[in-house]
């Protein structure tokens, strides 16, 4: 019963953080940009009429509210129905995926918006700063070293646990999975460091800042993912599997805190979205 | 230091790149030993073909304005300041026009000059 109570409390946190707090923050930022950087003064910021963005904002709000209500109803049902811990893990995971769906849609819309921006960009000049970029311009060597040490420690943990014949243990597949995950993160970071600029109007400093936010978030996510899997394995080995659903839900909340950093707008130089004639 | 490439300009893109890097060296905006972006990074930032940037870097390296240090990347050459003032393109034009004038004065026809030029170039393996 105590375990269920712990999970319910943590799951409530997951519902409120990802489907209430963050959407509210993000909607506030969207509203602030639409209000303070209107289309007539910042034409390069928009490729469609303002109504299109207000509609997208409304859809995002409705979708998140629906997911929030569904989560609260689900929690109310869970409180009244006893079940196994495996169910709780599955519920936390599937609900987390559902919670991320509106953010995924928002990202797809952003990619489409950038594509339209690139098509509409009629400037004959292209600029670049003659400065080499590298991973350590964005992530401190210390943080990177911590990520490497965490990964190596994880490998040692898997090798150690593999000596015992736990029926639930997946063996070296765990190493393969985490390695692939880290390679995926590394690919995204490298793409942001060296790849093409998605937003053709983005100021150089903004790009550097954005790359730093993404790179740091992904290195932290890599560390968090490795630690989470390690903790899950240790909990299973210590026969504390009943704590796993709560740990998993906490991990999802941590992931949300890390990943949703990319929606920061405080560093953006909006002057670049004015027409050339307007820029002083 | 910002590079600006005008894609509508009649000056070839790689030439614009070379000129701007040389100007940056002459103005002291980048100095000996400073690291330059990789070919891929600069090509992506300027939305140019990798080959265009590679060609500019190759010619700058030939002129000893930049130097490539293997996997460590590309850097500004220690003698870049002096070498940036040397314009091999205009030197070639000046040398060739002197030779062409001398040949024309001797009565050689334009087609004979072209054929001879092509023969000389092919004998040099280009």
Structure explained in plain terms:
- Chain A is mainly α and 280 residues long.
- Chain A contains 7 helices and 1 strand; from the N terminus they run αααβαααα.
- Chain A has one domain.
- The longest helix of chain A has 36 residues, at 85-120.
- Chain B folds into 2 domains: 13-83, Arc Repressor Mutant, subunit A; 88-123, no CATH class.
- Chain B has helices spanning 13-26, 39-46, 50-62, 80-83, 88-105, 110-123; strands at residues 2-6, 35-36, 66-68, 74-76.
- In chain B, strands 2-4-3 form a 3-stranded antiparallel β-sheet.
- In chain B, strand 3 (66-68) and strand 4 form a beta hairpin.
- In chain B, helix 1 (13-26) packs across helix 3 (50-62) and helix 2 crosses helix 3.
- Chain A binds chain B through residues 124-133, 194-197, 204, and chain B through 1-9, 21, 24, 30, 35-38, 40-42, 44-48, 73.
- Strand 1 of chain A pairs antiparallel with strand 1 of chain B.
Q: How are the secondary structure elements laid out?
A:
The complex is a heterodimer of chains A (280) and B (126).
Chain A: H1 2-36, H2 50-80, H3 85-120, E1 125-129, H4 141-161, H5 173-194, H6 204-237, H7 244-259
Chain B: E1 2-6, H1 13-26, E2 35-36, H2 39-46, H3 50-62, E3 66-68, E4 74-76, H4 80-83, H5 88-105, H6 110-123
Antiparallel strand pairs in B: 2-4, 3-4
Helix pairs in contact in B: 1-3, 2-3
Shape of chain B: elongated
How many DSSP helices of chain B? 6
Return the structural class of chain A: mainly alpha
Assembly classification: heterodimer
Rounded average pLDDT of chain A? 89
> What is the CATH architecture term of the largest domain in chain B?
Orthogonal Bundle
**Largest beta sheet of chain B, briefly?**
3 strands, antiparallel
CATH superfamily of the largest domain in chain B: Winged helix-like DNA-binding domain superfamily/Winged helix DNA-binding domain
Shape of chain A: flat
SS-derived structural category of chain B: mainly alpha
- The Rg value of chain A, from CA coordinates, equals 22 Å
CATH class bucket of the largest domain in chain B: Mainly Alpha
**Taking strands numbered 1, 2, ... along the chain, how are they ordered across the largest sheet of chain B?**
2-4-3
Low-confidence stretches of chain B: none
Helix content of chain B: 55-70%
Number of domains of chain B: 2
């Amino acid at each position: 019963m105590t375990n269920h109570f712990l999970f319910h409390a943590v799951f409530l946190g997951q519902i409120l953080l990802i489907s209430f707090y963050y959407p509210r923050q993000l909607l506030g930022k969207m509203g602030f940009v639409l209000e303070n950087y209107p289309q007539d003064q910042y034409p390069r910021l928009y490729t469609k009429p303002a109504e299109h963005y207000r509609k997208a904002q409304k859809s995002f709000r409705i979708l998140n509210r629906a997911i929030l209500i569904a989560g609260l109803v689900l929690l109310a049902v869970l409180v009244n129905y006893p079940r196994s811990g495996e169910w709780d893990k599955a519920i936390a995971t599937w609900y987390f995926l559902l919670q991320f769906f509106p953010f995924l849609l928002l990202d797809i819309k952003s990619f489409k918006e950038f594509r339209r921006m690139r098509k509409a960009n009629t400037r004959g000049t292209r600029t670049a700063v003659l400065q080499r970029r590298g991973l350590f311009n964005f992530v401190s060597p210390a943080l990177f070293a911590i990520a490497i040490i965490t990964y190596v420690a994880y490998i040692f943990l898997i090798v150690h646990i593999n000596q015992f014949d736990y029926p639930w243990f997946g063996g070296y597949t765990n190493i393969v999975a985490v390695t692939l995950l880290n390679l995926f993160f590394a690919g995204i970071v490298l793409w942001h460091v060296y790849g093409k600029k998605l937003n053709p109007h983005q100021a150089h400093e903004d790009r550097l800042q954005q790359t730093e936010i993404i790179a740091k978030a992904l290195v932290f996510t890599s560390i968090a993912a490795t630690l989470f899997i390690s903790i899950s394995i240790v909990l299973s080995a210590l026969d504390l599997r009943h704590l796993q659903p709560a740990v998993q839900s906490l991990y999802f909340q941590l992931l949300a805190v890390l990943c949703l950093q990319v929606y920061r707008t405080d560093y953006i130089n909006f002057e670049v979205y004015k027409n050339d004639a307007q820029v002083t | 230091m910002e590079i600006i490439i005008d894609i509508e300009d009649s000056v070839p893109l790689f030439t614009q790149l070379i000129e701007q890097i040389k100007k940056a060296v002459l103005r002291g905006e980048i100095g000996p030993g400073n690291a330059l972006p990789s070919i891929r990074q600069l090509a992506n930032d300027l939305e140019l073909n990798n080959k265009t940037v590679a060609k500019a870097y190759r010619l700058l390296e030939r002129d000893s304005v930049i130097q490539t240090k293997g996997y460590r990347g590309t850097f500004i050459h220690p003698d870049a300041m002096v070498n940036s003032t040397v314009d091999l393109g205009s030197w070639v034009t000046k040398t060739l026009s002197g030779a062409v004038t001398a040949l024309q004065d001797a009565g050689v026809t334009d087609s004979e000059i072209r054929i001879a030029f092509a023969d000389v170039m092919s004998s040099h393996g280009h």
